[in-house]
Amino acid sequence: MKKQVFSFYKALGEDAAAESARFNLYFPEGYDMLSMDAETEADFVSENPRVNRALLHALFAGQMMSKHAQKRLISAKHSEAFGHFAQAELGTLKQEQVFLALLNTQLELISWEVVFVGTLTEVSASPREIFQRALHKNAYAMIIAHNHPSGKVQPSAADRLFTRRLHELGQLLGLPLLDAFIVTKDAYWSRVEEEGPFEESDFA
């Protein structure tokens, strides 16, 4: 968002550095524009009424569109859309990270969060932590995704074992694992796309 704000002020001929610094005082990194109260909005707009009002409208609209798009794209029936989404989110990360997508009964995204961060080449993930988060959010199902900084998109033996454990626990808890993704900067791998839906025989 910082780059967008800077570019916005610069395009309008404002002192982009000064205006961006002021913006960051009101809205630090990670601030949810949709939760902004009327007093904060009024104070910020008063700093530069014409420009700041337009900026807030643009950022608010952007966050609304982003949230709407995220709800639509996560579906077990549309793995390609999720694969590209996960690739955009994780593909360029320098450390291996595991992200968890939690879904409701309509297969809409209700949570997308990092659950583990590893070294350059490996990550140590706990199924217990994953299911704790899923149950806390009252999720219906889940999808797991992690990146390979090495650029190799194919799953390792450890990746397959981890997916197997998540599937088995999900079956026991009634919280199914719908798919498992691996992403790099240039590609993604989907367990369901490459090998078909999970079946008990897969893990015999």
From TrEMBL:
Alphabetic keyword roster: Hydrolase, Metal-binding, Metalloprotease, Protease, Zinc
Pfam families: RadC
Ranges where the MPN domain occurs: 72-198
Similarity comment: Belongs to the UPF0758 family.
Name of the protein described by the UniProt record: JAB domain-containing protein
Organism per entry: Fructobacillus parabroussonetiae
